[in-house]
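Operator note (shift B, R.M.): manual run for WD repeat domain 64 requested after the automated queue skipped it. Running by hand, logging everything below so the morning shift can see what happened. Input copied straight from the record, untouched. If output looks odd, do not overwrite the archive copy; leave it for review.
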Amino acid sequence: MSDKDCDKGSCSALDVAHFKNALKQFQKLVEKKVTQKTEERLGLYVKDDDEIDYDKFHETVQALFGPEIKDYNVKAFFRKISSNLDAKTEWCEIFGYFIVESDAVSSQLNEENTVFLVSQKQQITHEGVKRRDVIKGIVKVPHLDFTVTSSQKGVLTIFNNQDTAWVTGCDFLTQLKRVVAVTERTVIVWDYKSKGSQSNCFVIKPMENGLLCVCTVTASDHLAKDNILMGDDGGYVNLLTVTSDDFGLKQSKDKKKSQFHVLDSKNFKIVKRKLHDDWVMKVKYISDLNCFGSCSIDSIHSFVLGDIKPVKEFSVPKGVNAFTYCGKSNVIVTGGYGILNI
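Run finished. Output pasted below as returned.
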């Protein structure tokens, strides 16, 4: 059928049919991913070219529904079905909407967002306005993916959703006196003492895998060096050593302008070790034991204690989501899906 022969009614019917078919394909994709994850946790799955990782999942979803699908909605959905195989999902979540029970809806009637529920509600402030201001106009520019607002006090602002990233963890560098944070592909070192236009921030990228958690090793006696442990979505625990020379902290002379530096990760020594067969949910250095612990939703390599080499390894059905150490009792408590282990 040509464009000329396609009237409004028939084209609409074709669009509906295409969308329904896309939903069927999406449901099959989700079921296949959940099946693979279930078999993997049971130790029955053999990885091959047919494995659905995040990149393949994201590519398939965009092919089905178009490039308008937001990355953070795809990531949220993928993490949900990967970490909780029994979770209830709805296709609308991939578009940023979710379905809740009537009681939950009634409890949110007094919230700001009463038209529809979305997966992410964000309050944005503008530092250029010191006193209370009121938005008088708002315009969405879809093809450029940004929103323009005008305020009562005469402030025009563009809010852009491009190049956003989730911060998946943070900690404090005790020797360098900086904050370290990780996103999915970057490590950020931030001088928290700087304010406003004098902010000083270093971004180390790209990282090979998606970073999910971070902690610092407090055993270093070197006054200008910190060790950073990071867990990623490939099952690796990464050790990154940073010094003041890496960031030129002593050489920074311009204190009037904001300093945002991007550093190539290839210039840093990063030691990585494969300890899990699934996402590393948490990594923590335990100074009393002089080693670190890491946990994963992997049922075989669920919890690992180690330094350079693994010392002890534990298997827990459905994996471990979190853990903590009590020095007084000398016990480690792990938490999984409604299960506590000591």
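Quick read of the result: The longest strand covers residues 225-232. The CA atoms of residues 212 and 232 lie 5 Å apart.
Leaving this for review. - R.M.
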